[in-house]
Amino acid sequence: LNSSNTKNMKSTISDEKLEELEDEIIMNYVKTKSPKIWHQMVMEWNWDNSSTFLHWLINNPLTDKATALMIYWKSSPRYSKQYKSKEDIKELHYIDTFEFIEKLEQNYINGFYQNHFFEYNPKNDKNFDWTSEYIQLKSEREIPENLFLKLEGKKIKEPEDFTEGMPPRLYDKLEDLYDKYDI
User: DSSP string covering the chain, please?
Assistant: First the structure.
């Protein structure tokens, strides 16, 4: 078979259905993995990928506090602080991100994340200072001080074989999905 015949044999799928199947594969995978794997996935996660995994983590009390702090800073919280409330947001697509950051911040400061085994420093994440991102913006609300603090704990090694935050087995399952459908 040549590639054009193979492509014609693929099923067609809507973007919404494909996203649903992607989320299902990702969530079935991560629910069987450890907080260490979740932490490593966040280290390399492509924020353009599905956000279902990140939402699941911030609503999961088993998520390590360091993982939650890393998600917080990689979500650019200072950008959201230019708004007093979600009613002030003009870019409608940003409202979900704003709500995500607010939920994560509340969970963090209210002690929702009971596990704390890992290290994370938002001021030195692979030599990048997340706390200085968007510092030029005028803040309407402040980031709580304890979110700037380095968390001591076990240093988790950077994953070497992950692709866009996905371990090889998970990435391969998604590739199989994409091979099945004409997208």
Answer: --HHHHHHHSEE--HHHHHHHHHHHHHHHHTTS-HHHHHHHHHH--TTS-SHHHHHHHT-TTS-HHHHHHHHHHT-HHHHTT-SSGGG---GGGHHHHHHHHHHHHHHHTT------B-B-TT-BTTB-GGGTTTTSPPSSPPPGGGGSPBPSBPPPPPSS-BTTB-HHHHHHHHHHHHHEE-
Cα angle 40, 122, 168 (rounded to 5 degrees) comes to 15
Residue 139, token pair as written in the block:
């803040």
**pLDDT-based confidence at 50, cuts 50/70/90?**
confident
Residue in this structure with the two tokens 């996935």, named with its chain if needed: 41
**Predicted TM-score (pTM) of this structure:** 0.90
| pLDDT tens-digit map of 8-28 | 567 888 888 999 999 999 999
